[in-house]
Amino acid sequence: MEKETYNYYQSSLEKFDYFILGIIVVVCGFLTKEINFAPIGLNIETMQLCSLLIFGISGIASFKRSEYQIQQYKFNYIQLVGRRIGSVESEVLTEDKLNRILRKSYICYVLRNSCLVAGFFNLHLVKSAWCICPRLTSQLTTRLRRT
Q1: For residue 135, which of 9, 11, 67, 118 sits 20 to 30 Å off, Cα-Cα?
Q2: Contact 24, 58 (CB under 8 A)
Q3: pLDDT for the residue numbered 110
Q4: How far, in Å, CA of 74 to CA of 62, rounded?
């Protein structure tokens, strides 16, 4: 029963990570298609570019998290096989490596989720500023270009 529950948890976690990665890729594709290019400065186009970069960082962190999870499964397997045959060396080596991989996976998890939230917040800010007050944003852009 415990093994089935763990396998269900593990497959659900993988599916959720792939789902989040798919959302990130779709949003990056949408932003790439919809972005307007202009000189870098304090303007809407630069904010859109920042959103794209934030989502790109989130996508890279998501890929790395998936890679670290695969390595974690590998080292868990090595650790289990090493305990069955009584190998102390493989147990010590993999325990240290496993802890490093778990730490890196957690860092990628936090980075992915933080960048995802920051990217959506930035994108919402850009879209709402453009929709609510386009005149104000165009005036601000014009004033900044003059200086």
Answers
A1: 118
A2: yes
A3: 95
A4: 19
Mean pLDDT score of the chain: 80
DSSP state of 41: S
Task: Note the helical H segments in 1-147.
Answer: 2-34, 44-85, 88-132, 134-146
Residue 88 pLDDT: 57
Residue 122 near residue 54 (C-beta atoms within 8 A) = yes
Tokens of 118: 């920051």
E-strand ranges in the chain read none
The CA–CA distances, whole Å, from 79 to 70, 84, 117 equal 14, 9, 36
Q: What's the average model confidence in pLDDT over 1-24?
A: 83
How many residues are there in the chain?
Answer: 147
Contact 47, 125 (CB under 8 A): yes
134 vs 70, higher pLDDT: 70
Tell whether the model's pLDDT for residue 1 goes beyond 80. Answer: no
